[in-house]
Specification:
single chain; about 270 residues; alpha+beta; 434 Repressor (Amino-terminal Domain); Umud Fragment, subunit A; 9-stranded mixed beta sheet
Length: about 270
């Protein structure tokens, strides 16, 4: 329990609580709490559960993560209940960067950086060296990141487009048949239409827009990050929808034929 003692002291002071306050809330002696904070006593499982429920932070996080080293936005994510361990994933608290005014940056992961991101996504030093920018029309209260996609699996979105996603902290809210950028343990970054089967099967089923690609399932243990699609930027025009154009032309021909028949009937 490397960080437990420091974490409960840190959280107590962050909330402006005394040892008496916490001890009363958890139905324990103040001396017992003091022993935990000063590392002269080790909590049992019941005490760990009590602390976890009180601070709304998972036991794994309380004992393995140095909370005092996290940024303000990371702490805020935890305090709002977005604890990645509670959500049953192997994710770590999101590593992020801010500008000189403490506003969240949008980090850019270009094609050449995608392999490095797969291993360095949780490394603050790696995230810090990524190119960053801001888009004024996006919400300042949400976290965004932009990824360059490759291949033709998501046509008509062109190859080499830059796709921006909003960070998803709770995977239970992944919506069916919506596009997401997903960081996977083995495949790296993929951009797919998602079918959420976490509750039923513990997997996400991923679909490509291009019908030539078969859908496939990915277990939750293989998922590292999820970003909800927001928009994309490309220097290319999307390919025309030829089936739609053909259908539209057919409808126009039928309309002309109907008009011709009506004119004959009127004569």
């Amino acid at each position: 329990m490397t960080h437990f003692s420091n974490n409960i002291r840190f959280l107590r002071k962050r909330r402006g609580r005394t040892q008496d306050d916490i001890a009363f809330a958890l139905n324990m002696k103040r001396s017992t709490l003091s022993g935990y904070e000063n590392q002269v006593a080790q909590p049992g499982i019941e005490a760990l559960v009590s602390f976890s429920k009180y601070f709304n932070i998972a036991i794994d996080t309380l004992i393995t993560v140095d909370l005092s080293a996290l940024s303000e936005i990371q702490l805020s994510q935890l305090e709002r209940g977005h604890d990645v361990y509670i959500r049953g994933s192997s994710l770590r608290v999101l590593t992020t960067t801010v500008d000189s005014k403490n506003n969240e940056n949008i980090e850019l992961i270009e094609e050449k950086a995608k392999a490095g991101y797969t291993t360095g996504f949780a490394d603050p030093e790696y995230i810090r060296i990524l190119p960053t920018f801001n888009l004024p029309f996006l919400s300042a209260s949400k976290k965004y990141r932009t990824f360059q996609i490759s291949g033709d699996s998501m046509l008509p979105i062109p190859d080499k487009s830059f796709v921006t996603g909003e960070y998803v902290t709770d995977w239970n809210f992944i919506r069916n048949h919506q596009p997401y950028i997903i960081l996977t343990r083995d495949e790296g970054i993929v951009f797919k239409i998602v079918e959420n089967r976490l509750n039923e099967e513990g997997v996400l089923k991923l679909h490509s827009l291009n019908p030539l690609y078969e859908p496939y399932k990915i277990p939750v243990a293989e998922i590292m990050e999820v970003w909800r699609f927001v928009h994309y930027i490309s220097s290319e025009m999307p390919e025309p929808n030829r089936e739609r154009d053909t259908l539209a032309e057919t409808v126009k021909q039928l309309q002309r034929q109907v008009q011709a028949i009506q004119m004959k009937l009127d004569l």
